[in-house]
Design brief:
With about 260 residues, the protein is an alpha/beta fold. The protein has 2 domains: about 200 residues, 2-enoyl-CoA Hydratase, Chain A, domain 1 (Alpha-Beta Complex); about 45 residues. Helices cover about 45% and strands about 15% of the residues. Helix 5 crosses helix 6 and helix 9 packs antiparallel against helix 10. The longest helix is centred in the N-terminal third of the chain and has 16 residues.
């Protein structure tokens, strides 16, 4: 059984973690397969939006401690690898210049929690729960959790969540700003598909440049960010999609974006 299942429809690439019997816990095959699948989606012009979800009842329950992926200590290459698989999970999502949606259909724990946080948008099923959980195993966080969580909920709240290792239900996730929407369990897949379709119909260049701007905003001085915004805006104005948007507005119709 493959660790990852990928499907495409209408510009939406869905990447499904496929270890349902283990709540999609991470084994070596899954650890390596996910960033490859995200990179492939990022490089395909036919893909407009990426959805990551889990098979069965879970999104991703974190590291499978029964068969843990090797830590970077077995070979010289692994010892010199500063990121290992946990780092590549986060960087693959950030580097993908297309909207990435985490469709959290069930438990997201540990590195699975980090995976959800690294996505641009999180849609959470009403019955799902999130947890860092590292402290329960006497571990410090990985998978970008300490990078993304404070940016999403603030440093004080992130500290409390990580120090307690407690569960966050869907209602609290939405209140904290971790969830763009909480969707009913029984129609979760259908509503995720409808949500993703709206992004697939959007302007790819504008999405990519907006994602670049958001990635730089916490590190760039104001003047540098303003200059970057203006440069990207000029690129958008010169695009065929911007011209199409103006035509559609004047003709009172929905635009049909080509990505050009």
């Amino acid at each position: 059984m493959p660790a990852i299942i990928t499907t495409s429809a209408g510009g939406v690439r869905t990447i499904t973690l496929n270890r349902p019997e283990r709540l999609n816990a991470i084994d070596p095959e899954l650890a390596e397969a996910l960033p490859r699948a995200v990179d492939e989606a990022a490089c395909s012009d036919d893909v407009r939006v990426v959805v990551i979800t889990g098979a069965g009842r879970g999104f991703c329950s974190g590291l499978d401690i029964s068969t843990p992926p090797r830590l970077p200590e077995s070979t010289r290459v692994e010892r010199l690898d500063p990121l290992a698989w946990v780092g590549r999970w986060a960087t693959a999502l950030v580097a993908c210049e297309k909207p990435v949606i985490a469709a959290v259909n069930g438990v997201a724990a540990g590195a699975g929690f980090g995976l959800a946080l690294a996505a641009d948008i999180r849609l959470i099923a009403a019955g799902a729960r999130l947890t860092a959980g590292y402290v329960r195993r006497a571990l410090s966080p990985d998978a970008g959790v300490t990078y993304f969580l404070p940016r999403l909920v603030g440093a004080s709240r992130a500290t409390e969540i990580l120090f307690t290792g407690r569960d966050i239900d869907a209602v609290e996730a939405e209140r904290l700003g971790l969830a763009a929407a909480v969707l009913p369990d029984d129609v979760f897949g259908e509503q995720v598909a409808a949500y993703a379709a709206r992004f697939a119909a959007g302007p790819p260049l504008a999405f990519a440049l907006t994602k670049r701007l958001l990635a730089s905003t916490f590190d760039a001085p104001l003047a540098a960010q303003l200059e970057r915004e203006l440069a990207y805006l000029k690129s958008c104005f010169a695009s065929a999609d911007a011209a199409e948007a103006l035509r559609a507005f004047s003709e009172k119709r929905m635009p049909a974006f080509s990505g050009e």
